[in-house]
Design brief:
Elements lengths: L1 E4 L4 H12 L7 E4 L22 E3 L5 E3 L1 H11 L12 H28 L7 H21 L1 H5 L4 H16 L10 H11 L2 H4 L7
Parallel strand pairs: 1-2
Antiparallel strand pairs: 1-3, 3-4
Helix pairs in contact: 1-2, 1-6, 3-4, 3-6
The protein binds glutathione.
The site of glutathione has 14 residues, from helix 2 and helix 3.
């Protein structure tokens, strides 16, 4: 299988951590891709019409895209490692937590695109702040309602949250999310110490 990939994409990182945790790294070939909404560059637009990564081309020629689809597919192929998508009813909690991690990423990436891709006179401070408020509310929800799940066995929900927190450090360090979320920060330090997390940390910007 071919995984359209970038070492700085937090959505790709979700799949890479899954591959590390389940011993499946050898099942994919990595195809580097780079691009943005305003310039698709080398993004796999033929395989994924949305022009986004990750995209996973299977050996039968079919392409899966969106990290949530890819991660569920890869987890279903895994023969070892943790049950990253546990059976229902725990599944619903895991999927909601994964959606929370991905939602933080969606907002953080929109903030990044606003400042990196638009001229200063086109940027909206109110819109950027609105995206940050989505992140801030989600961080508070994680800290107050989700710690029991996060402290339990590794799931795709906790991997998504870990990837989202690393991305906040990577692109929005000035927001200093740790200062107001010490419990979550302590959990993130344990997540970051996993071999799979260390092997996939994004390169310095
Ligand atoms: N919901 C998608 C989001 C993927 C995504 O936005 N990836 C970024 C890279 S971090 C991308 O491909 N951006 C290019 C674009 O939006 O055109 C997923 O979970 O895979």
């Amino acid at each position: 299988m071919t995984l359209h990939y970038s070492a700085t994409s937090p959505y790709v990182r979700k799949a890479m951590i899954l591959l590390h945790e389940t011993g499946m790294l050898d099942s994919v070939t990595l195809a580097p891709s780079m691009g943005t909404p305003v310039d698709p560059g080398t993004m796999p637009v033929g395989a994924n019409p949305l022009g986004k990564i990750p995209a996973l081309e299977r050996d039968d020629g079919c392409t899966l895209y969106d990290s949530r689809v890819i991660c569920q597919y890869l987890a279903a192929q895994a023969t070892k490692g943790p049950a990253l998508y546990p059976a229902a009813p725990a599944l619903w909690e895991t999927l909601t937590l994964e959606a929370t991690g991905d939602g933080i990423l969606d907002a953080a990436i929109l903030m990044r695109y606003e400042t990196a891709l638009r001229a200063p006179e086109q940027q909206s401070a109110a819109w950027i702040e609105g995206q940050w408020q989505k992140i801030a509310r989600s961080l508070t929800a994680l800290e107050t309602r989700w710690m029991a799940h996060l402290e339990g066995p590794l799931t795709m929900g906790s991997i998504a949250v870990g990837c989202a927190l690393t991305y906040l450090d990577f692109r929005h360090a000035d927001r200093d999310w740790r200062a107001s979320h010490p419990t979550l920060a302590a959990w993130e330090a344990k997540f970051a110490a996993r071999d799979s997390a260390k092997a996939t940390v994004p390169p310095a910007a």
